[in-house]
Amino acid sequence: MYQFSREEYEARMKWFVQARFGMFIHWGLYAIPARGEWVRSQEEISREDYMKYFEEFNPQGAGPAAWVKTAKRAGMKYVVLTAKHHDGFCLFDSKYTDFKSTACRCGRDFVAEFVEAARAEGLKVGLYYSLLDWYHEDFPHYGDRNHPMRNRPEYSNEGRDFERYLTYMHNQVREICTNYGKLDILWFDFSYDNLRGEAWRATELINMVRSLQPGVIIDNRLEVSGEGYGSLASGNPTPYHGDFITPEQMIPPEGIRDANGKELYWEACVTMNGNWGYHAADHYFKPASMLIRKLVECVSKGGNLLLNVGPDAQGNIPEQSLRALEEIGTWMAKNERSICGCTKAGIEKPESGRVTRNGDHLFFHLYENSIGPMPLPGISKEQIKSIRYLATGAEVPVSTSWVHSDYPDTVFADLGPDPVLPDPVDTVLEVVLKS
Ligand code: GLC
C-alpha cells in the first residue's frame, strides 16, 4: 500500500518555492516546418513525410549552453527541456530508437549538453517527456484523439501492441533517469481519455523513477493534463500523484487548494507568443512588462511561472524572446528577493498592485501611481520596522501628511516629491515587519 509522506513531500518541494521562476524549452524537428510543435498532428502529416525534417536536422546556432545562460540572466532558477515531444523525436541518445538527434546529421545528444550547461550555471534541471508518441508503431493511430493518422482507417490499430509501447516508454524514462545525472524535475505530458494513470503503468513507472531519482519533483500529468488537478488535490494521493499542479496558458484566479483547503504547489506554464514550439509567423509576443507582472501574480497566488521559449531550427531563441528576457533580467537583478522564496501575503490585493511575502518581509509591487502618499493597506503602523525601495535600498518614511488624516487606520508611504513611480513596470517596496 502506498503511504503518502507529507514530510518527504515538503522536503523535496523546498527548492521549488525558493526558485519560483523557470524556463521551459520546446525544441525538436518541428522547428523546421516552424508552425508549432503540433504541426504533424494538425496537418495530419504522414510519418514518411515528416522524415524529411529528420534527414535535415543539423542545428548550427546557439544551442543548450546559450539557452541556459539566457535563463540565468533572466533571473530564472530552473530549466526544463523537451527530451521527447509528442512527435516521438528524442533529443537524447536512446538505445531503443533511431529517431533521435544522435542519429541525425548533427549527431549531438542535446539532453547531455543541456544538463551539463544547466548544472554549470547552478540552475536546477528538468526534463519534459511526452507520454504520447506519434512515431511509435504501437501507439494508437486511427481513432485516437490526437494522432496525425487519426482520420485514416488504413492506419487501424490491429496488430498494435500498446503494452509493447509502454515497455518502450518505461525503458526511455529509465534512460533519462540513469544517464544524465541528478534530475530536479520530471515533467510528463499528458493524460487524456482512457490514457491516464495505470493505463501508463503509472505505479510501476513512478516506483522506478523514485528509486533512480529519489529527490525528483514530478508534475501531475500522469493523471491529468493542463485540465484537472489530480489525486493529491482531491485528498487521496495515488502512488503516482503529481507533486505540483500544471495550469497551462492561464493563472489560477486565487491559487490552488486541495479538498481540505490546504495550499497546493502549482506552476503555470505560459508561452511568450502563442506557441510552444518555434512558429515563424507567430509574432504575438507578450511584452516584458506584462510578463514581469504575471510572474508577480503567480507568486502572489502561491505559484511558480514556467515561461517558454521555442528556439528555431538552428537552435537560436527568437529575438523577441531574447529582448523580453533581457528586460525581465534587469528587473529581477534588482527585485528578485520579492519573487524567490516568496508566496501569498495573506492580505487583500491592493488597488495599486500586488503583494508577495517572505516571512516578516512584505513586498508591495506598485503598478499604479497615487495622488499624494501611497496607501499600504493590510498593515498597521505599529507592525512596521522599516520600509525601503527594494531596487535601491533607499528609505521610505511612513507619511505624516495631514491629507490622509481622515484615514487614521491606513498606513501611507511617503514616496517623496516625484508623483511618478521610479519603475513604471513594478516599483517594489520592501516592508519589514517587527517579529
Ligand atoms: C500541451 C501540449 C504540448 C505542450 C504542453 C506544455 O500539453 O500538448 O504541446 O508541450 O502543453 O504544457
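^ alpha-D-glucopyranose complex. The mean pLDDT is 98. The chain has two domains: 6-341, 345-433.
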